């Protein structure tokens, strides 16, 4: 089962954290970030893609050193739609935070300082998206021997289209 299939399955399962309400909250937060920064949602989704790839690397490293349960606990602790600088500091060193901001700025044209200020919102948002599918989605995201091209921005676009946003 692919990542998108798992997302759509989560939407239809009202007993799962990834129900329609959770996805709607994520999409609404992306739209709010877009409105606050003056950037279109596709630009914010591109920033999310860069952030998601770094989260992928960080979670894989944590899984290798501490195990899958530690990764799941971290996702559960920090997932949400509210800003949380502790989530950023837990996953990224200051140098990685700057690197993520610089790469996203190069891709999108947004100021790296603005992107760095958005990280406390974007990191919990990506984690929330991972949590929305439950463990199978997180496991797919961490699957090192998969295609390695899990892209949060693509998943967000699919969710947005599904929700008619």
Describe this structure in words.
Helices cover about 80% and strands about 0% of the residues. It has helices at about 5-10, 20-35, 40-65, 70-80, 85-90, 95-110, 110-130, 135-140, 150-165. The protein is globular. The mean pLDDT is about 80.
Helix-strand layout with pairing:
Blueprint: H1 3-12, H2 20-37, H3 41-66, H4 68-78, H5 85-91, H6 94-108, H7 112-132, H8 135-142, H9 152-163
Helix pairs in contact: 1-9, 2-3, 2-7, 2-9, 3-4, 3-6, 3-7, 3-9, 5-7, 6-7
Number of helices: 9
Order of helices and strands: HHHHHHHHH
Distance between the termini: 25 Å
Structural class: mainly alpha
Strand count, sense and barrel status of the largest sheet are:
none
Low-confidence stretches: none
Please sum up the structure shown.
This protein is mostly helical and 165 residues long.
Features:
single chain, globular, 165 residues, mainly alpha, 9 helices
């Amino acid at each position: 089962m692919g990542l998108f299939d798992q997302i759509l399955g989560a939407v239809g399962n009202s007993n799962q954290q990834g129900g329609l309400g959770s996805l709607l909250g994520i999409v609404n937060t992306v739209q709010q970030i877009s409105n606050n920064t003056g950037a279109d949602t596709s630009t914010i989704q591109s920033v999310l893609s860069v952030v998601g790839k770094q989260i992928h690397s960080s979670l894989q490293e944590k899984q290798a050193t501490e195990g899958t349960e530690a990764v799941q606990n971290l996702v559960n602790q920090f997932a949400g739609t509210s800003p949380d600088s502790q989530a950023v500091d837990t996953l990224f060193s200051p140098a990685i935070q700057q690197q993520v901001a610089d790469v996203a700025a190069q891709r999108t044209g947004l100021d790296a300082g603005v992107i760095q200020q958005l990280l406390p919102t974007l990191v919990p948002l990506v984690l929330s998206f991972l949590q929305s599918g439950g463990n199978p989605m997180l496991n797919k995201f961490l699957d090192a021997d998969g295609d390695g091209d899990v892209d949060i921005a693509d998943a967000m676009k699919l969710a947005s289209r599904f929700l008619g946003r």
